[in-house]
Amino acid sequence: MLFVDYSSAFNIIVPATLVAKVKTLGLNRYLCSWILDFLTARSQVVRMGNNTSSPLTLNTGAPQGCVLRPLLYSLYTHDCTATHSSNVTMIFTNGTTVIGLLTDNDDMAYREEVSTLTKWSQENHLSLNIDKTKELVVDFRRQSREHTPITIDKTPVERVNSFKFPGVHINEDLIWSTHTDAVLKKAHQRLFFLSRLRKFGMSPSILRTFYTCTVESILTGCITAWSGNSTAGNRKALQRVVRTARHIVGGELPSLQDIYTRQCIRKARRIISDSSHPSHRLLSLLPSGRCLRSIRSRTSRPRDSFFPEAIRLMNSQN
Questions:
Q1: Are 235 and 261 contacting, i.e. CB atoms less than 8 angstroms apart?
Q2: Which end of the chain has fewer CB atoms at under 10 Å, N or C?
Q3: Per-residue pLDDT tens for 107-127?
Q4: How far is CA 139 from CA 3, 48, 105, 173, 272, in A?
């Protein structure tokens, strides 16, 4: 996996290039003209106290703080797609991730994908930040081989053991201790504020709302991706946070296991109802039409991951 970082990506959007791209998507020509007018000839000044700089006219980028900023960037980068079937290109805010599946130690398609991405970035005036670009290699073979680092503009990319993407710490061995430790640290910090609110005499309903918004949201972020493969010790440590919060709030709070079960089922149902989802085919019904087809695996790592677990939960309800 290659985690690519762009320097000031939102500020390098070229309006003419963006409009040309959205026209290919079938947008109304009046809307295209409005976007072009919105992004060009923008006057900007810097004010500090009573001092104001001279105005500067900008013809690139999207205005900072504008609600359309992420949407315009997504439209600008929508044509950045994988060119090989063994690769996947994912775009999230100002970063891009290239995921390549290597078979028989053949990384030619993966390296070509990186080269294509580099060329696309140059053509679209996006500057690659090589210092913040990292590579993560996941290899479970018994006899792992030396991996030659990826190079961008003749500069080797740093290989890391873990990377935060996005909000989840991914390790090269797919062990989630690093992520759960980070979640625990952040959750304990929020528990302090929860206890302070109780000392100030806040009602149980306000305490529960604060817990749901600031603590539970951290504990359950992307829980369907990592909870199934986390260790029993990690799950117990996270559940202790819930028990502490339950004591502070003074009422029952849902366990993390219950939340994980509900989110797995809800996510599986969304995938089943969306035929365009890339993983729609993994959740197929048996000829009886009552149960989903099970996914067989020889090791516990794939068996405890989202799709097999979601299938087991869905079938248990039938």
A1: no
A2: C
A3: 889 899 999 999 998 898 888
A4: 17, 53, 10, 8, 30
Structure tokens at 252: 């029952």
Measured from the Cβ of residue 32, the count of other Cβ atoms closer than 10 Å reads 17
Place of tokens 């677990």: 309
If you ran DSSP here, which 8-state letter would residue 255 be given? -
pTM of the predicted model, to two decimals? 0.81
* pLDDT, tens digit, 9 for 90 and up, residues 209-253: 999 999 999 999 999 999 988 999 999 999 999 999 999 998 889
Q: Are 61 and 11 in contact (CB under 8 A)?
A: yes
DSSP string, 58-90: E-SS--TT-TTHHHHHHHHTTT---SSTTEEEE
By CB atoms closer than 10 A (0-12, 13-18, 19+), residue 96 is: buried
- Show the tokens assigned to 306: 């989202």
At 85, list the tokens: 């079937």
Positive or negative: CA dihedral 218, 221, 224, 226 = negative
Distance CA 52, CA 174 (A): 52
Helix (H) or strand (E) holding 308: helix 306-316
Assess contact for 306 and 295: CB atoms under 8 A: no
Amino acid present at 3: F
Locate the DSSP E strands across 56-184: 56-58, 87-92, 95-100, 134-135, 151-152, 155-156, 158-159, 162-164, 169-171
Which amino acid is present at 31? L
Judge contact between 151 and 157, C-beta under 8 A. yes
The Cα-based distances of 56 to 122, 166, 207 in angstroms read 26, 35, 48
Q: Are strands 155-156 and 95-100 parallel, antiparallel or unpaired?
A: unpaired
